[in-house]
Amino acid sequence: MPKTVPAFQAPGPFRADQIRPGDPYELSNGHPIHCMPTGGRGSRANLVGAALIDSDPAVESAGVDTGFALTPNTLRAPDVAVGNVTDAPGWVKGQAPPLAVEYADSGQDEAELRARIADLLAGGTRVLWVVRLVCPPRVEIHTPGLPLRVCRPGELLEAPGILRNPVPVAALFDRTAAHEATLRNLLQRKGYGDLDAVREEGQVQGREEGQTQGALIALREALLLVLAQRGLDPDPARRAAVADCTDPERLRRWLGQAAVAASLSEVFV
């Protein structure tokens, strides 16, 4: 968590171009803020939340801890940023992400969090979600010019013009809920509404090939589509394993793991 920083009135002496990628600092009005490592609970929630948001069909760019040089002396790195994340080295200059997500756990420096929110909203962020992990878990919604709103598990978060799909509050910190929503998003990127649509396609194919065989074919195709979307290219042995698999439960398990896995070894276990 960031260390406490006073609410400086006068500009500090530092500039964003003096901070290098990897340095444990952000800047607010020229004053350095030392950023500490994230705890276990926060890191797990950050991972599943970022994967879910990045998979939304409307998202073209997203990043974790992306440095945004909002002004020459203000550098902020939200936990998750959606939009304006360039595929280039160095800081993203001039424009904050339209959607930013911050995770707050026990020990959170509230003064620094307020300063971070203010800097991002002033820099152009349209929606900022603060995911509170301390019980009761909840999400605070910050938007310029509007009162703070709070959503709790069971409710949906929306970011019109940024995300296509509503985000269940629990999916920003609960791994199972995040996996379900991520799988839906990845299937939508390939033209399926959800997993039920995959099953329906399998039933259509099943009229010609037998329902069981048609469902297996649809599951295999969905698995390969999700792997391709995630940039995970199976080697010939794994492709053969998919093609030869006649166990629908195993294929569904691989499909669910493919939506969130970082490597092929995490899918085919």
Rounded radius of gyration (Å): 21 Å
Query: In the CATH hierarchy, what is the superfamily of the largest domain?
Result: tt1808, chain A
What multimeric state do the chains show? Answer: single chain
Overall SS class: alpha+beta
Could you tell me the CATH topology label of the largest domain: tt1808, chain A
- Weakly predicted, low-confidence segments: 1-7
Q: Largest sheet, order of strands side by side?
A: 3-6-8-9-10-11
Instruction: Report the average pLDDT across residues.
Output: 89
Strand content range? 15-25%
Organism: Candidatus Thiodictyon syntrophicum
Domain Putative restriction endonuclease: 20-160
Region (Disordered): 1-31
Protein name: Putative restriction endonuclease domain-containing protein
Please describe what this structure looks like:
By secondary structure, the protein is of the alpha+beta class. Helix content is 38%, strand content 17%. A six-stranded mixed beta sheet has the order 3-6-8-9-10-11, sandwiched between helices. A three-stranded mixed beta sheet has the order 5-4-7, covered by helices on one side. A two-stranded antiparallel sheet has the order 1-2. Helix 5 packs parallel to helix 7 (248-258). The model is unreliable at 1-7 (pLDDT under 50). Pfam families: Uma2.
Offer a few descriptive terms:
269 residues; alpha+beta; tt1808, chain A; 3-stranded mixed beta sheet; 8 helices
Layout of SSEs?
Blueprint: E1 25-28, E2 31-34, H1 40-55, E3 62-64, E4 68-71, E5 74-76, E6 80-82, E7 92-93, E8 99-104, H2 110-122, E9 127-132, E10 138-142, E11 149-151, E12 156-157, E13 167-168, H3 175-189, H4 195-209, H5 211-229, H6 236-244, H7 248-258, H8 264-267
Parallel strand pairs: 4-7, 8-9
Antiparallel strand pairs: 1-2, 3-6, 4-5, 6-8, 9-10, 10-11, 12-13
Helix pairs in contact: 1-3, 3-5, 4-5, 5-7
